[in-house]
Amino acid sequence: MNVATLSVGSLEAQQGTKARGTVRADLGTLTADIPLILVNGSRPGPRVVITAGVHGGEFTPIDAVVRLADRLEPGEVHGQVIICPVANPNAVYQGRLNVSPVDGVNINRVFPGDPDGGPTERMAAWLFANLVDGADVYIDLHCGGIDQVLRDFVGYRLTGDPGLDKATAELAGSFGIEDVLIGLTAEGGNSHAAAARRGISAVLVEVGSLGQRDEATALRRVDGLLTALRHLGVLDQDGSAPAPIRQWVWSAGVTAEATGLWYPEFSFDADIIGEVAEGDLLGRIVDPADGTEHTVHAPAGGRIFYGMHGLTVRPGTELAALAIPWDPDTAARPDTLPVPGMGRGSDEADPRP
Known about the structure:
Elements: E1 5-8, E2 11-14, E3 17-26, E4 31-40, E5 43-51, H1 59-71, E6 78-84, H2 89-95, H3 119-130, E7 137-142, E8 148-150, E9 153-157, H4 162-172, E10 179-183, H5 191-197, E11 201-206, H6 215-232, E12 246-255, E13 260-264, E14 275-276, E15 281-286, E16 293-297, E17 302-308, E18 312-313, E19 318-325, H7 328-331
Helix pairs in contact: 1-6
């Protein structure tokens, strides 16, 4: 793509320049000011859109993209990079959770949104109309929220378009993250799934746990983004070889069936969240009033990629998600794989890869 002026709303960057500011989104009953950094490279190349702050309580992605924006020099960029550090201000600044306090909606279940819907649906539609729909590549950054432990992974969806799926698989492997979760369909309301259905090479990148913000994790994330931009040709190659990856598909999701206090059996250390077999005890939900226990067992075997750290849960709360190594023969038959549900957890949840 070679466009002299890169513009979103009233914010614009001429070729070879960088612009920062906010653009107001009309959400019907209210408005939201969306922060943006536009980097319009001096040479032609793809348009890459990077979002963070889709959910509240996920701080490292926001920190990382602001640091990335500071490091990108238009004279070194081929193409255009649009960075949106806070894509859902209502959830980020007010709720600090996956759902917006405005209407109780998780935006990453309703993409590509509805311009005539409620505020969160309109926010999703604004992001697609103004940012994502013009992209060649879309990267949505998340991490384990304030109640969630999580192993780092990249997720993407299969579309059935061989060229698009190959390009997205290569993109997913370019971040230096070992684990890649493959979605068997592009259905659902997740941002990267909706973008994939529109022919955009789109990935979800999950790095970090418990909503923590620390410089080391942010810088590691910036390094991964720079590596991906080199892979895409947005930045010049540095001669480094791709890191090895492991491919997975989801085997099961576990949701709470009772209200109470959650006591998991698995470790809270994201680096050593372990393997379980079908039927293994995952934890207990205890009624704080009378001490009644509801035991929770693994419905299938696999590695735990994320788990609920919060103490209080209710029916439908996602407690854990399990994945198994990629087997093309099995993964080609999505009906043979139970998938995690539509609860409050990570962003591969409707359906997971």
